[in-house]
Amino acid sequence: MHLAGTRVFIVEDEALILDTLQDMLEALGCHVVASAVRVDEALTKLVSLDFDVAVLDVNVAGTRIDPVADLLAGRGMPFLFASGYGRGSLPMAHRERVLLTKPYRTADLRAALHSVLPQ
Amino acid sequence: MAKPAADTARKGHSAAVYLIAFAVAVTLPLLLLVGALLYRSVTLENEQNKQRIGQVLQALVADLDRDMDRRIAVLETLSTSPLLVAEDWPAFYAQAKQGLGSRAYLVLVAADGRQVINTYVPYGEAPKMTGDPASLQKMKQDPRPVISDLFTSLVVRKPVYNISIPVMRGNELRYVMSLGLLPEDLRDLLQGQSLPPNWTAAIWDGNGVTMARTHDQERLLGTAVPKHLTELKPQTVVRTTNIDGQEALIAVARGHWSNWTVDVSFPATLVDRQLNDSLLFWGATILLVGGSVVGLALLFGRTLTRPLAAATAAAGALGRGEPFAIRDSPIREINAVNDALRRARHDLDEGSAALRDNEERLRTAAEAAQFGAHEYDVVRDRTHRSPQFLKILGADDADATATFEAGLDFVHPDDRDMTRRAKQRILQRPEDRYQLEYRICRRDGQIRWVMDRGQVIRDKAGAALRVIGVVLDITDIKEAEQRQRLLFDELNHRVKNTLAIVQALALQTLQTRPKPDEFADAFSDRLGSLARAHSLLTEDSWRGASLQDIVATALSAFKDEGRSIDIGGDAVMVPAGATVTLSLMLHELATNAAKYGALSVAEGRLAVRWTAVPSAANIMVDLHWEEDGGPPVSPPTRKSFGSRLLASSARQLGAELDLDFAASGLRCRLRFPVPRPGP
Q1: Contact residues, chain A to chain B, C-beta under 8 Å
Q2: Rounded to an integer, what is the distance from CA B308 to the centroid of its chain?
Q3: Where are the alpha helices (DSSP H) in B429-515?
Q4: What is the reported pLDDT for B9?
Q5: How far apart are CA B596 and CA B303, in angstroms?
Q6: What is the pLDDT of residue B1?
Q7: What is the pLDDT, as a whole number, of residue B170?
Q8: Which of B239, B265, B349, B625 has its CA at 20 to 30 Å from residue B309's CA atom?
């Protein structure tokens, strides 16, 4: 299982979902290095954070995720979206990224992570 | 509509012209016939005159000859007298004088020209020589009766003429016996013919000297007639100048005995006057008939054209929708036209009244429906817009008409190409109806959505002639649609988010309550809490809920059981997302209190109190959960679902959470910001 040890950064405002996602990732052997419940918090944490992949909610407590996605894309970091909104709600520049539609299963999460992480 | 050519009214001729032409066509042959008849009667008259001249001439000649025959017979009777043979001159003189009477006298001339007897004068007084030597000379050559020319008698001393016969003795001429006659006898003979007035008969002798005339005998006796008259061919009526130099119809003839000429003439002025009279009569007839015909034609034409002109004017007024009055005409056909016009006016009035009513209703309906109408004339490339359409466009009357391309000026630039293509396609494709939606830019800069529906009207060949359509401002509908779509998107998101929360609740509950019956109870409780939070939010359209309501709802089940629960604080609104989170937190605290804390025993007390203090950026809520009178409290030995939820939820709310597991009862303090209410 080569997801083992994968370092994950989560941006998700909904507490229960954040907890559950964290549980799922840990069940997959990933290590959640940090999480953010707001966009500004995420941007602050990203400055010094080291991780392999990010899972991003789209609408974070009323603020769009766009600046975070742009920053990650600029760095060439792999990331995926997890959102209750459809693909149409994704940032225009990131429409073709992997989208995990809520609610999702652990298997869905694993497949999504596999598809964004380098082989 | 093309204006009918005004020239048409000037085409053709007035009915009066046709009536005149008709009258002329009818009367002209009649007039020509009258003319021909008149001419015929004139020529016939002329012919008759000529014939009459001939007849009179013949009668005169015959009379003259008879007269001479009689005179010659008298002379011949005398020549056989024994007294002549015996040359008993005094007795013969007496016999002759007695036999002849007063109008004639006898002259007996010997062959040598010596007068023997002259009864004009007393016996023995006769002139010595004959006054008519010409007759003697003729008789010497040819012993036949001779009628002399006029000569002046030696005894009468007036012009006379002689009728002479030879008196022969054997083959020798012995005497010439002449009857001396006065020209008056000839005049009487001429006058005895009782010629019509103005006719003239005349006799001239072989020398062309007038011997007798019916008129002017005294004046012209013995004068020579003009040479051209003497040269006239006998028995032919010619027109020439008479002895007085006047135009006349003249015929001449010669007698059997004499070389005299008898002439009958009558003035050409008579003939001419007849001709002139006829011509005058004909001309007068033409003038009278022609004048009355033309006058009547004009009169009838007026009775025809006047009501026609009135009907024409009425038809014009009818066309312009103006009132008109027409009177009855004596002509039935025109009355029929008038009736038709009146009926048409009546029908039009009724029709236009109905049309006005209809139009009024349609306009009211269109205004009520706020429909703008437009009509596009394909052939002339012209669009007409109704006032309501102009109102929709925010335009004025100057924009009431436009070409196809100019008509697109109002279309929003982003929609213009699409609209142009669609409208061009509408004109070409076989379907007749269309419906388009596009945005327009009003004159005042507002952008509005319109729906444009219409129909194409085609000719028989299928080519588009006109497009008639209505335009409705659907901006409100469009905005409502957009709001609805947003709402659906939002709802979809919330449902999915809620499902995600439910999933999380299930997974989290399963970790601490793996036994099915325990899981079911705990999960159901939490679901119920979630449902009540949603109910609260639905009451205020998901804008949020008051903190009072959130707390009361979360604890309502325990309050209903009669537990001592004290709730109160400042009025403050919590946003939707925070409401759910806060509800779940309060639910976990209450569940914990009901299992292990103040709510697990009858004498336990719970107080939930808060303050809300506005700051520059938001409102800070400071909430205290305080339990008393319950069993002794001890901190949890392992991290439970509740404590994990409280911690992560507090983080979500941006809250500071203080949990104090005091022995007297659990103390929980939660400080979190909520946004200031909007204006």
Answers
A1: 13-20, 23, 37-38, 59, 61-62, 83-86, 88-89, 101-103
A2: 13
A3: 475-512
A4: 61
A5: 125
A6: 43
A7: 82
A8: B349
Cα B477–Cα B479–Cα B481 angle in degrees, nearest 5: 70
> Strand pairing partners for B449?
B439
Residue A68 burial (CB count, 10 A): 25
Low-confidence ranges of chain B (pLDDT < 70): 1-10, 638-639, 679
Task: Note whether B394 contacts A: Cβ–Cβ < 8 A.
Answer: no
Domain assignment of residue A43, yes or no: yes
Closest Cα partner for B165 from B217, B206, B107, B215?
Answer: B107
B30-38: long-range contacts (C-beta < 8 A, 24 or more apart)? B30/B289, B31/B282, B31/B285, B31/B286, B31/B289, B31/B290, B34/B282, B34/B285, B35/B282, B38/B278, B38/B279, B38/B281, B38/B282
Is the torsion defined by CA of B191, B193, B199, B205 positive or negative? negative
| Per-residue pLDDT, B2 | 45
- At B450 the pLDDT is 92
The residue among A69 and B248 whose pLDDT is bigger is A69
Query: Does B492 touch chain A if contact means CB atoms closer than 8 Å?
Result: yes
Contact yes or no for B511 and A16 at CB 8 A? no
Q: Do A18 and B652 make contact, defined as CB atoms within 8 angstroms? A: yes
- Domain that includes residue A45, residue range: 7-116
What residue segments make up the domains of chain B, in order of their start? Answer: 370-473, 514-675
User: Is A16's CB within 8 Å of B505's CB?
Assistant: yes
Residue at A2 is within a domain: no
Cβ–Cβ < 8 Å for B619, B672: no
Half-sphere exposure of residue B598, counting CA atoms within 13 Å on the CB side? 27
Q: A105 vs chain B: nearest CA distance in angstroms?
A: 9
Helical packing angle, B475-512 and B641-653, nearest 10°: 150
Asked whether the beta carbons of residue B649 and residue A15 sit closer than 8 angstroms, the reply is: yes
Write down the architecture of domain B514-675 according to CATH. 2-Layer Sandwich (3.30)
CATH code (residue A89): 3.40.50.2300
Residue B396 vs residues B368, B382, B392: alpha-carbon distances, Å: 20, 17, 10
Query: Do residue A102 and residue B508 have CB atoms under 8 angstroms apart?
Result: no
Domain B370-473 sits in CATH 3.30.450.20:
yes
Q: How many domains does chain A have?
A: 1
Q: Outline where DSSP puts E strands in B587-679.
A: 605-614, 618-628, 656-662, 665-675
Query: Is residue B424 less than 8 Å (CB to CB) from chain A?
Result: no
The pair of three-digit structure tokens given for residue B305, joined into one six-digit string: 């054209």
Nearest-Cα residue of chain B relative to residue A16? B504
What percent of chain A shows pLDDT beyond 90? Answer: 72
Q: Do A84 and B489 touch (CB under 8 A)?
A: no
Cis peptide, bond prior to residue A103, ω within 30 of zero = yes
Report the first-to-last Cα separation within chain A, whole angstroms.
Answer: 12
Predicted pLDDT of residue B367: 78
Q: ipTM score here?
A: 0.91
What are the Cα distances from residue B165, in Å, to B91, B92, B495?
20, 16, 179
Residue A1 in domain: no
Cβ pair B507:A23 closer than 8 A: yes
Helical pair B15-79 and B268-320, crossing angle rounded to 10 deg? 170
Q: Does B482 reach chain A within 8 Å, measured CB to CB?
A: no
> Distance between CA atoms of B365 and B362, rounded to whole angstroms?
5
Q: What is the pLDDT of residue B5?
A: 47
Cβ neighbours of A23 in B, within 8 Å? 507-508, 511
Within 8 A of A88 by CB-CB distance, chain B residues are 489
